[in-house]
Each structure stands twice: as structure tokens, then as C-alpha cells.
């Protein structure tokens, strides 16, 4: 397969085009990108997990130029705040928590210490959480890598980010076309053989559907349905909006629980982007929009109402068409994982890109891997609603919903002994799971027996050394303004 045609819009189109071009050009693969009209609004934002940094580096994107061009910001995680009262906030930070003791994972020692009255919270042992609380950006170095991972992501205003990726695509020799109307040609087997973009015919061997919830090729052409995850998620509508930038700019996102749903704030240099998610059965659109202003504490503008209907394609790759991003899987808006899901699809496509004419084995493996990857993201998102301790009908509905069987197993195992069962295709790091589960009140009642072999006094000394290292390391880090080149 030497001709790849990508149909889509916005960041999914351009990220797919740039990644496939960079990885496959040496093998003689020619990439054509067909751009549909944008669906983005000034209020849209992409929140990224740390893994996007390596992908940007592969594409030659300079971090400083990226943040300057998009007016984006660093993010060290997500702060969860109960606006209804009674539950302490916790920061689900990127990177690692603590460092190994006596060759064993830190978390079991923390669980045992907490059971014995240890006053330090789990996030106190995180370099990134401590930096975020102090308005600093934790830049990884040799010392911090020995201690544990110190990662960060970004908040990237979507229009500017997509524009920057398009510039990269055009500079790297990708054939770029724009179209308002698309016709599809298929052969007798049902495979796609060409797209006709505003009258111009573009033939291909492999077609990538990056059209988001339009699913123009995978669903509207090939008829591949979406398995609904509706029963696991109480959110069915959301507003995206923006308000004034904070000064200083926080180095984390914040999710605020309110009586009708939740409000997420994604700080940037030029604006604070807001996602306000709710259940239409419990609150009307106008009241929800007023609630967004109240919960965010900001004067909002550019508000756009969108549906939320989570689910996954039964076959993300059908015939010779591969769906990525929103065309393959519609995620719940919590944690803003859409760009992460897109990245997982691109990595899997490169891993299983067919070397010969017979794509069936690659297609079968891609579908298996991506179904598993999407379901693990579903579990992580559903855990938030299943465990959230906040009062009100919305949160009661989330707790009352039957969790996926895999999630029920994860929660039960974690509660029993503080361990997470290894799940194939899970792209969420264990410490990220641990921070969320403990923050939402799941307290392990035991720990692995190996933990008891280490002397308690030695463990206490190790805890003191860790907390001292975190304090000293964070004090040397730049403020967010300095990291953005403002001071």
C-alpha cells in the first residue's frame, strides 16, 4: 500500500497526515490530506497527556514555538474540586509518585503508612503535584528521573494548534486539498478506490477517516455502527466556552463538581477554556449555561452547545478504511482524552501498517488493539462517575450506573490490596489510576505482604527523604510565566 488518503478536519487530520508522512515517507508511501470545513470554535481546546511531547519532537515541533504560536500553557495534571462541600480537593498529577523502597513499589508502603497514621497525602510525594501547587513547571532532569517521572502536558487552543499542524504538513510535502463535498468510489468487494473532492478524483490504497463524529467514511459509507456506552455515563450535553485568562496562569486544569454536573477549566495565555458537562434530563440548557458561569467564576463568551454520546466502533478498521480519533471512538468529555485517543490510533496504525497486499491480519490486530485501548479509556472515565462522592441527582446517577465488568474488577482489586490488575492496552499509568482512586475515596484495606519485610523505621526515614527531595527540587523550578518565556 503506497497511497494513503486522509479525509478529515482540524487537528486529527493534520496530526494524522504529519505522523504518517514522517513515518512512512522513506518506504515510498505518498500521503494526501483532504481537508473538510473546520468545526472548531474559539472556545475549543485540546488538553494533552505527556506522551504528545515525544510525538511533537518527532515532527520537529519546537515546544517554545508551539506554546508561543498557540498561546497555550503547560499542564501538570488535573485538580478535582468539590464545590458542593465536604470532600477535599486532590490533584491527579502527571508523572510518578514516590520512589521504590527496598526494591518494591512505593504505593504499598504509602498504603501501610496511611493505615498507621501517616499524615502525608499521596500527592505530597509527587514532584509534579508539588510544583503545580506552587505555580511552577517541573522540568525533568537527571535527579528527578532517578526519583520518578516528572511529566507534563499542554493546554492548546484548538484553532491555533490545528493551524500550526497544517503548516507543518504543507512544509513536509504532503499533498493538501480542500473540499466541501465528497463522493466515494468503491469496487465490487466494497473497498474504497477513490474519493472525489469537489470534482477532483483522488485514488488511494488505504483511506483514513479523520472526520470526527461525522464518521463520513467508516459509518456513512461503510455502515460500521458504534457500540453505545451511554449506560456508563450521566453526561449527554456540554457547553464549551472561554473566559479571561488567569493571572498568574495555573499549571493545571481544574474540574469542579457542581450539583448538575461538572465544570472543567483549562488555563491558557490568552483565555481560560471552559467545558461544562451536564445531564439534560436534570437541567435545561439555559440553566446549565448560567451554571457554567457560576461554577467557573468567569464571564464567559463564545459558548457552543454539543451533545455527548460515548461509544466505540465495532470495527475501527473496515475494508481498506481506518477510522481514527472521534470517527473511531466518541469519549465522554471528562479528562479531555480525545487527542490521546487519536494518538493511540496513529501509533497502532503505524505498528500494524500492512507491508503487502493482504491487509486482513493487520486489520484484525488493529481492531483488537484499538477496541481494548478504547475500552480502557472508557473504564478510566467511568471510574470517575462510579466513585465520585459528591451529592446530588447527577452524581447519584453516575454511582447508580452499572460499571463495565473490567472496571468493577479494577476497583475491587485495588480496594482489596492496593494493586491494579494489569490490563492489556491500558495507556493510563498506574500512578494516575492510583491518584484518582484514592482521591475519590477508595482506601485499600491491605497491601502486598512484601511490604512488611522492610523495617518501619527505615520506611519512615525514606518517606522523610522523599518529602525533602520533593521540596528542594520544586523550589528550583521555573514559575509558569518563566517557563512560557514571560519572565
UniProtKB/TrEMBL annotation:
Signal sequence range: none
Give the Pfam families listed for this entry. Trp_halogenase
One GO MF term attached to the UniProt entry: monooxygenase activity
- Report the superkingdom from the record: Bacteria
Record protein name field: Tryptophan 7-halogenase
Q: Which organism is it from?
A: Sphingomonas panacisoli
Q: What is the lineage of its organism?
A: Bacteria, Pseudomonadati, Pseudomonadota, Alphaproteobacteria, Sphingomonadales
Amino acid at each position: 500500500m503506497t497511497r494513503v488518503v486522509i479525509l478529515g478536519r482540524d487537528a486529527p487530520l493534520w496530526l494524522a497526515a504529519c505522523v504518517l508522512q514522517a513515518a512512512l515517507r522513506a518506504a515510498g508511501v505518498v500521503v494526501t490530506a483532504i481537508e473538510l470545513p473546520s468545526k472548531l470554535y474559539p472556545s475549543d481546546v485540546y488538553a494533552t497527556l505527556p506522551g504528545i511531547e515525544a510525538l511533537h519532537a518527532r515532527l520537529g515541533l519546537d515546544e517554545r514555538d508551539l506554546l508561543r504560536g498557540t498561546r497555550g500553557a503547560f499542564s501538570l495534571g488535573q485538580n478535582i474540586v468539590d464545590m458542593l462541600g465536604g470532600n477535599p480537593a486532590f490533584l491527579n498529577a502527571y508523572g510518578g509518585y514516590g520512589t521504590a523502597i527496598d526494591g518494591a513499589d512505593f504505593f504499598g508502603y504509602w498504603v501501610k503508612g496511611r493505615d498507621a497514621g501517616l499524615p502525608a497525602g499521596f500527592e505530597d510525594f509527587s514532584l509534579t503535584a508539588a510544583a503545580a501547587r506552587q505555580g511552577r513547571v517541573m522540568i525533568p532532569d537527571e535527579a528527578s528521573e532517578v526519583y520518578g517521572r516528572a511529566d507534563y502536558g499542554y493546554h492548546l487552543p484548538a484553532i491555533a494548534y490545528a493551524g500550526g499542524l497544517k503548516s507543518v504538513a504543507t512544509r513536509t510535502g504532503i499533498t493538501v486539498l480542500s473540499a466541501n463535498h465528497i463522493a466515494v468510489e468503491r469496487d465490487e468487494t466494497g473497498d474504497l478506490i477513490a474519493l472525489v473532492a469537489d470534482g477532483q478524483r483522488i485514488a488511494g490504497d488505504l483511506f483514513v477517516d479523520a472526520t470526527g463524529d461525522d464518521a463520513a467514511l467508516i459509518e456513512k459509507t461503510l455502515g460500521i455502527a458504534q457500540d453505545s456506552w451511554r449506560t456508563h455515563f450521566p453526561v449527554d450535553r456540554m457547553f464549551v466556552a472561554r473566559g479571561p485568562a488567569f493571572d498568574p496562569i495555573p499549571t493545571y486544569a481544574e474540574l469542579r463538581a457542581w450539583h448538575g454536573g461538572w465544570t472543567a477549566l483549562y488555563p491558557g495565555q490568552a483565555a481560560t477554556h471552559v467545558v461544562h458537562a451536564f445531564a439534560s434530563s436534570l437541567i435545561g440548557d439555559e440553566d446549565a449555561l448560567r451554571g457554567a458561569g457560576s461554577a467557573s467564576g468567569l464571564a464567559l463568551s463564545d459558548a457552543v452547545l454539543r451533545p455527548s454520546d460515548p461509544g466505540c466502533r465495532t470495527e475501527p478498521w473496515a475494508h481498506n478504511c481506518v477510522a481514527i480519533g472521534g470517527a473511531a471512538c466518541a469519549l465522554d468529555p471528562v479528562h479531555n482524552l480525545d487527542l490521546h485517543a487519536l494518538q493511540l490510533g496513529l501509533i497502532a496504525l503505524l505498528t500494524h501498517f500492512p507491508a503487502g497486499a493482504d491487509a486482513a491480519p493487520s486489520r484484525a490486530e488493529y481492531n483488537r488493539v484499538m477496541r481494548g485501548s478504547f475500552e480502557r479509556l472508557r473504564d478510566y472515565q467511568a471510574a470517575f462517575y462510579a466513585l465520585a462522592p459528591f451529592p446530588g441527582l447527577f452524581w447519584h446517577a453516575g454511582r447508580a450506573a452499572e460499571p463495565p465488568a473490567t472496571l468493577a474488577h479494577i476497583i475491587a482489586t485495588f480496594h482489596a490490596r492496593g494493586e491494579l490488575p494489569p490490563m492489556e492496552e491500558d495507556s493510563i499509568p498506574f500512578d494516575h489510576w492510583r491518584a484518582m482512586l484514592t482521591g475519590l475515596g477508595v482506601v485499600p484495606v491491605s497491601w502486598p505482604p512484601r511490604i512488611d519485610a522492610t523495617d518501619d523505621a527505615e520506611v519512615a526515614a525514606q518517606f522523610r527523604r522523599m518529602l525533602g527531595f520533593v521540596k528542594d527540587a520544586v523550589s528550583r523550578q521555573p514559575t509558569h510565566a518563566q517557563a512560557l518565556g514571560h519572565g
